[in-house]
Amino acid sequence: MRWSTLFIPTLRDAPADAEAASHRLLVRGGFIRQLQSGHYSMLPLGWRVHRKVAEVIRQEMDAIGAQELLLPALHPASVWQASGRWESMGDEMFRLVDRKGADLALGMTHEEVIALLGLELSSYRDLPQMWYQIQTKFRDEPRPKSGLLRVREFAMKDSYSIDLDDAGLDRSFDLHHHAYVRIFARLGLDAVPVEASSGAMGGSASIEFMVESPAGEDDVARCGGCGYAANVERASAATESVENRPAGDAPEPFPTPGIRTIAALTEAGHPPEHQIKTLVYEADGDLVLLLLRGDHPFLEQKFVDATGVADLRPADADRIRDALGASPGSLGAVGVDGFTIYADPALRGRSGMTTGANEDDVHLHGVDVERDVAVDHWLDLRGVLDGEPCAACGEPLQVVRCIEAGHIFKLGRRYAEALGVSVLDAEGNARTPTMGSYGIGVGRAMATVAEVLHDDAGLCWPVGIAPYEVVLTVVKVDHEASMEVAGRWHDELAAAGVDVLLDDRDARPGVKFADAELIGIPLRVTIGPRGLDLGSVEFTRRADGDTTEVTVDDLVASVLDAVFDGRQLSR
RNA sequence: CGGGAUGUGGCGCAGUCAGGCAGCGCACCUGCUUUGGGAGCAGGGGGUCGGCGGUUCAAAUCCGCCCAUCCCGACCA
After folding, report:
1. Distance A66 CA to B6 C1' (A)
2. Which residues face A156 on adjacent strands?
3. In a domain, A512, yes or no
4. CA of A37 vs C1' of B55, distance in Å?
5. pLDDT tens digits, A10-63
6. Order of all β-strands in the sheet with A95-97
């Protein structure tokens, strides 16, 4: 293609409200434009990358035997009501009413629709099945952000497996795991599989593929010693043992005027590891008490995952006061009953502890947790902190910010059951199959690559997904010999299947170099009178700036070599 | 949903405090010169100043309401 005829609106300055590197560069490079918050137009350059990323995903899905199909984006309420998710998805689902008054939803995901198709399956001989699509998903995100990283409308590759039994599900899950490893490697991403919470999807196990980046929204705890890696929503660490402070036979109240925080109580001589942090939450409307060691943060997702509570929020101060007789900052669980009390295992065996007395400006010391508190459930509630020892090997854990690039779930029989899917097994018994679901956001994957592979000058796409593989930069377009040779090479390379871009714009060389670097074309041939007089041109690699002089006769072969090498790396 | 901020030409911004002809840089168009890392000179086009209402002789500017966008948090496959 000739650059002069293309729509590549590059900008010298990024929009002021773009923060993330990928957001700034994709807008500046003319890949995307925002229509409204969370909705982006893919311009020609962006769409080329998007299609190439999708193609990588397609190839790897096909390679594990998955079959591509396409499901509707607009769903009747009934299928979501059947699974119970019409209610549970809440405000995140876009809903509308058609002219007949029927309730509809824009699909956030397609488990229900897939399960409906599963009704066509009647025999164990039909299993296993793996189906996938690349389809637009709609989610009314509370806060779209960071360009393509979190949006409300996006293309997602979602696949679904249907198996007769758990062993089959394990097999389908592992196939996807391997496919995902290959996909991310081909995209040039270092994606780490980590144990994850299954959240609203439910199911028995899930693994997220995480790419380290400050633009991410998840924290992952990783162990350099044994390779343990888990989302902090699930991660655990060894508890560093604390020696109990000496204490008497019963808790003793003492005055703590004005003290409302862990930090303030620490200054008063009670280190956080000797405090019990008491949190009061409403769990589906009921008040519950959550106890943690003073220096341990509460991780809500752990509680939600363990209890199945749908709606968890901090109780408001009035309700707490009515229930316990004190305000947050002076709360404790000693002698409290009538509320379910959950305690983190780090409090087991602890004594000599300090906690609120449920009377403003009074705390208790000398508390023995198991003696003085009627704990109903011991439950891992705490968030892992950077540097804590790994539970498996004792090495310090690192907590790193990551982008969730992919997520695979073992769903179990929930959806098949809800939609009434069943097949006959070899003995003629009706069996409910078990399902898995597996997702990769195409635009997010693209933005993640941009986030990780760029420098001050712009993007650095891997050859496999670059919008063009090579750009022929003609330094002086009114130099006939330059244009002649560039045109010939363009045609030869295009005929050889290379995505080649000929920069024939009548612009200054500096502008052309800067644009080529900004949009991240991995290979550049610089064609100018200076070199041509000597029978050579410059050949530059975007990634490292490495430049070599190549003779005119060898140029096409050199480019083909480099392109095929580059494609090889991404496969 | 809570907190913070911002809306002036395609992009970046000044002007708002203290009301008085809507400006600057980049980009764009024309001409001349220039031509291997974001050229120079000259001329030119383009803006409901987010929207609605109010105050005023006069509103980008003051007041009220609304909308949009971004950031932090909550939330979130």
Report:
1. 48
2. A135, A441
3. yes
4. 35
5. 999 888 888 999 999 999 999 999 999 999 999 999 999 999 999 999 999 999
6. A74-76, A103-106, A95-97
